[in-house]
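call fold target=Glycosyltransferase involved in cell wall biosynthesis
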Amino acid sequence: MSRGESPQRSRSSQRSRRSRRSQSPSTSRRVLVLNQSALPRSQGGGTRHVELFGRLSRWSHRIVAGNRNYTTRERFSSRSPAFVTVPVPNYESNGPGRVLNWLTYAVGATVAGLRSGRYDVVYASSPPLLTPLAGWLLARLRRVPLVVEIRDLWPRSMVELGYLADGSRTHRMLVALERFVYRSADAIVAVADGWQDHFAAFGVRPERVVLISNGADPVDFVATVSRDKARAELGADGFVAVYAGAHGPANGLDLILDAAGELPGCTFVLVGDGLDKARLVTRAGEEAIGNVRFLPAVPKEQLANVFVAADVGLHTLAQAELFKEALSPNKLYDYLAAGLPVVTNVGGELERRLVEAGCAVRGSAEPGEPSLPSLVAALRDLGDRGADERARMGARGREYVERHVSRSIMATRLEALLDDVSSR
């Protein structure tokens, strides 16, 4: 700032320079994306950012991720200049090791961001909250806008799941950090509709929040093997239910093992990895639950060859009021994009929308407490024309994804947001 220049004029000049730079036809606009758990398509797990930013037409991007798969915790690497990794340590539980993992990524991502050349926007995704803190620092140093993406309401979700004591010193510190992150962002991206009251409690105006849901595209879920071959490779026959995703404490997978015990005539396929997988495998063995198949995590392009063997996709979560308020689960949209009817145990608004769309079935349990076995059995027992009805439900699911939560639709929304914040 020159001597005598007001802070307001300085900020206006910076915005004007950013606007002229972003509008220059000879300059490609670039966005730096920080997400510790981002994964390339070659990995099994969350590929939200690769799929979204890879669909932008007016922006180039660089994603900075940790070099360990969030679910398997195994190291991976990338040779793409659009996807770089920073080393992070392993951890085995929700304790000090995981906190060190977050801190290491935040420091490494900041260094990687400083070495990434010019960019016009910083896009930082939480959890953990340390990632948008690193994004804030980079945005301040480079004098560019900061967009903060909220994929989970930390620390509220940790309190509701019993990992953190409400009102504890750690909780108060995290809430203070959460408030700082919200107030520092030029815009906030929410992945689920229904968090407006939460943001408003921190003084965030509704117009600062943009919904960019998780989603999927049906073209990414076209099987290359026959249904019979896929089922033979799984050793599965009869009615097959599949779960594909993280195997962690929050995912409620004991409910699937409970359902498998109650429905011995069905085969349950669990695809993925996580902190709870070893325990789940041990439990299935000790209780002689023989109709469960555990598969490793697979890249998304291979999921279609698993889904083609199934009759229904399963979505489970540990029960928490937060999940009933708002939810945007990638795995559920993957099922729908693949043409599978779905069942979910979360109840609330998400279940209502899917039932109204005709791609999910409501169980016979009390409202708000759906029984997973009853949901699966309801789809299995549709009668003589059950396969045809499930196919119709699957077709309605694909249509729902294409119309409401496709990656292409969300990428268009994301590009409009980047255009807006870079030209302010």
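return ok
The domain at 218-405 is CATH 3.40.50.2000 (Rossmann fold). The first strand starts at residue 29 and ends at 34.
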